[in-house]
Specification:
- Helices cover 30% and strands 32% of the residues.
- By secondary structure, the chain is α+β, with helices and mostly antiparallel strands.
- The protein has a domain of 67 residues.
- The chain is globular, with a radius of gyration of 14 Å.
- The N terminus is likely disordered.
Length: 120
């Protein structure tokens, strides 16, 4: 797993890139079970007691399975893992403009920091 510390958002972060982050999330496409490997998993200090596990998906070309992956991760997997409570706090962001990623991440964290801190 490729790990690197950086300071993308003004918070201390640790990230793993999607080449092989060490885990997948399941999704289904046309009745076939598949596994989604996130582009990035970033661990961020967002003011809560523990680090936020932040899945970032950078979208490029429209692929038929992209919508299924994103929807499942955002609407099913993240709420389920947060509801379980045993694997830390998780959030998901899809970035369609990689040139503006820094601003999109900052805006997401700013608008969601209080609700994310409540997940425990």
């Amino acid at each position: 797993m490729a790990r690197r510390s950086s300071n993308v958002t003004g918070h201390t972060v640790q990230k793993s890139n999607g080449a092989n982050p060490g885990f997948t999330t399941p999704y289904t496409l046309n009745g076939e079970e598949k596994n989604y490997i996130p582009d990035f998993i970033v661990r961020i200090k967002d003011g809560a007691e523990d680090l936020l596990n932040f899945i970032i998906e950078v979208s490029g070309w429209k692929k038929k399975d992209k919508a299924a992956k994103v929807s499942t991760a955002r609407n099913l997997w993240v709420p389920a893992v947060n509801n379980h409570g045993g694997f830390g706090r998780w959030a998901f962001l899809e970035i369609s403009d990689p040139w503006d990623a820094k601003n999109l991440i900052r805006a997401f964290l700013k608008s969601n920091v209080s609700s994310l801190a409540e997940v425990q």
